[in-house]
Amino acid sequence: MHQKQPAIGIVVVAAGRGERAGASEEGPKQYRTIGGKPVIAHTLEKFASWELSRHIVVVIHPDDEVLFAKAASQVQSGAPIDAVHGGSTRQQSVLAGLHHLRSKNLTHVLIHDAVRPFFDHTLLDRIASLLSEGVPAILPAMPVADTLKRADLDGTVLDTVPRTQLYAAQTPQSFAFEPILAAHEKAASANLTDFTDDAAIAEWAGIPVRIVEGLADNVKLTVKRDIAMADSRLSGQALPDVRTGNGYDVHQLEPGDGVTLCGVFIPHDQKLKGHSDADVALHALTDALLATCGAGDIGDHFPPSDPQWKGAPSRIFIEHAAKIVRERGGTIMNADVSLIAEAPKVGPHRDAMRAKLSEFLGISIDRCSVKATTNETIGFVGRREGIAAIATATVVYRET
User: What does the domain layout of the chain look like in residue ranges?
Assistant: First the structure.
């Protein structure tokens, strides 16, 4: 079924004073310079250049009009950007932004902290896909990796808090427009002001909130050191940590009714022999991803001796590898698969395969490549005894 394209507005919250970042002649932390531009300019550029942004409203402090105008002038043209004054709390500021967007004929809204400049269009696309499926509220979040302790007032540890099912919330938090506006208005009418984020208001209002995998880099710039590190990152003072991984796999062909390659089933008079669904392409790409962070290979994580993986779809393996990469601070930039087979023909299915890779990896389809060639009737591939795959993955890792 064709999914209707959502009409998305953006609320960027930028009315805070940022005391923890210390005083600066540049003003509050959202106007501090990183990589030659104010933090908020980097944030706005990401939204303004996103093809699904319909309208952007920035909620600012009344004292910051000049600072905001200067920052906004550095944003390349894209979605229209307005500014409105916020309130004394973040909650009041968000409501002001929602009221401004009320007349813009929007179906959905993304609410984002101005001081989170390191998100990307891939995350926004994942959110938009879920919104278009009818999910009413989406929270990007990362599983908590640190050990958590509960302590009393004097700092004595009381116990260790299990990390299972605990997540660190990020923004943009994203909602169907009318329900979140109604929830904010209801909270304001009830004089409830202690919600820590918009997802908490949605939960209170009975709106189901779905977690989507966030980004390790999508951190909030809070203290002075955060801003200095962000400036160093964007100013090119450190080489980007770009890693490339390679993977190779081969599976034997036997009589059957078809093969699965890159998650796409192709009818054929043979099938691939293997413990799982024998998707040779995804197996090679899984190894390529794991190689970028030294995480072993597919056999280490999914041993063929384990009966639970018998007949398993290989999307489980590739999504597991992508999760490991992201948990270790990686952003997948590109995936390339070359298939070596005499038959079946891959060309008619190439775009479907690329779409599957895009779905499994959570990256845009233009970053997914599938190619095929024969072996000119030479060797086991040429004799139609098997299919081989070579895969390459490119991942950029954050500084540690």
Answer: 8-234, 241-397
Annotated binding site: 249-251, 275-276, 283, 297-299, 373-376, 380, 383
Give the residues across from 80 on adjacent strands.
Answer: none
Nearest-angstrom CA–CA distance, 137 and 130: 9
Q: Could you give the count of Cα atoms lying within 13 Å of 328 in the half-sphere of its Cβ? A: 19
Pick the CATH number of 8-234 from 3.90.550.10, 3.10.129.10, 3.30.470.20, 3.30.365.10: 3.90.550.10
Q: Which residues are annotated as a binding site for a divalent metal cation?
A: 249, 251, 283
| pLDDT tens digits, 6-30 | 999 999 999 988 666 556 777 899 9
Residue-wise pLDDT tens digits, 234-259: 876 556 789 999 999 999 999 999 99
Q: What is the CATH number of domain 241-397?
A: 3.30.1330.50
DSSP string, 290-319: HHTTT---HHHHS-TT-GGGTT--THHHHH
Q: Which residues pair with 266 in a beta bridge?
A: 259
Q: Are 83 and 57 in contact (CB under 8 A)?
A: yes
